[in-house]
Amino acid sequence: MKKLVIILILLLAATNIYAQKKWTLKECVTYALENNISVKQSELDLEATDADKLAAIGNFLPSINGSASLSENTGLSLNPTNNELENTTFGSASGSINVGYTLFDGLRNFRNVQRAKISKLAAQHRLDKMKDDISLFVANAYLQVLLNKANLDVLKAQNNVTKEQISRTQDLVDAGVLPRGDLLEIQATDASEIQNIVTAENTVQISLISLAQLLLIKEYETFDIEDEGYDIVDDGISSKSVAEIIANAKETRSEIKIAESDVAIAEKDLQLARGAYYPTLSAFFGYNTRYADNDPLNRSFTEQLYLNDGIGYGLQLNVPVLNGLNVRSNVKRSKVNLQRSRYQLEQAQLDLESNIYQAYVDVKGAFKAYEAAVKAFESQELAYQYAKDRYDVGLTNAFDFSQSKLRFDNASIEVNRTKYDYIFKLKVLELYFGIPATELKF
């Protein structure tokens, strides 16, 4: 009984620890990259390229095939041991081994291996881009939770002040310093703030559920994040010129590497299509033997296999002369695909430049908005403190004080909004510069 009680206590403790776990941003990103279905599908696409590469390498190996047959013949049939027609019933067997090897095929086997290697690189770049995109989605959702929590803290803190003011106002009303209408005004403000707190709590919970669903976490009722230790961390990216960021992005960004890989694949496809213009030279070797149970010399099975065997070997040359213009049409089609992929690379570079310019401008604008919000907050804080001091001594009414407090609350929320907006946009710019999503600092 004592052991059972201990086990139950340990289980309850473990459950409580799990429920109290708070996820950091790094843990969320890592978990998403390990469990996201799209990432898993991209990893399968990468594994599939290994099979393509293996098949391309296999084309350099000789083909070896063996065959065997066993038959029963009745009536007029050809005796395989002496090549004479016989009207009888007999059993026969035969076997053969054939070996073939391509000596020259217009370098198509070599090009196929190169193409398979490029395809694997392209798949890896697509996987990297998928991870970057998902990391960015997770970071955005995480910062949204932080923003909602920060706003909730502001509302709760200010409501505590309101409750203190209710107590002070009650004393002033009782002393006859303030009219009862001021107390009612403050109480109405308290009720409105409580309603806002409930709405903010729901907003926090909804954003937590959205983040948990993005991570494919089913137990989202107990899901929570670490909401401390996140601040503006700029490693100097905002001080770099937009030209420097674009130049580095063109060398590191996955979307450019994907487009470049597509061009390289299209070039190999064109070389493969042109390879069909060349003749194909292959070597072959064959060995065969046979047995029949009506051998006129009554030789044994092994003796017949030894005496009735044969070998064939040689070279085979296939020269393309006229094939319905298939090769020419394939070459032309490959040229069109190559040009299309080059245009797509050019478009990808233009899109990247445009996105970086937009991200660069967004960062500058977000930082200015954050600075302005901080200044406005500082001004509203002074105005609020001044209004509070005047209200405490009965020099202003409750309505004016509530309006000052409302402006202060809004200024606090605006600081939070602009802060996390700036953090997110700064991290987007860092991603464009080539910093891996898992190495972003907050």
UniProtKB/TrEMBL annotation:
Primary location class: membrane
Any single Gene Ontology cellular-component annotation: cell outer membrane
Keywords tagged on the record: Cell outer membrane, Coiled coil, Membrane, Transmembrane, Transmembrane beta strand, Transport
Protein name, UniProt field: Transporter
Xref: PANTHER family: OUTER MEMBRANE PROTEIN TOLC (PTHR30026:SF20)
Annotated compartments: Cell outer membrane
Keyword Nucleotide-binding (UniProt): no
Organism ancestry: Bacteria, Pseudomonadati, Bacteroidota, Flavobacteriia, Flavobacteriales
Source organism (scientific name): Pukyongia salina
Domain of life from the UniProt record: Bacteria
Recorded coiled-coil stretches: 242-269
GO molecular function, one term: efflux transmembrane transporter activity
InterPro entries on file: OMP_efflux, TolC-like
Keyword Methyltransferase: no
Similarity remark: Belongs to the outer membrane factor (OMF) (TC 1.B.17) family.
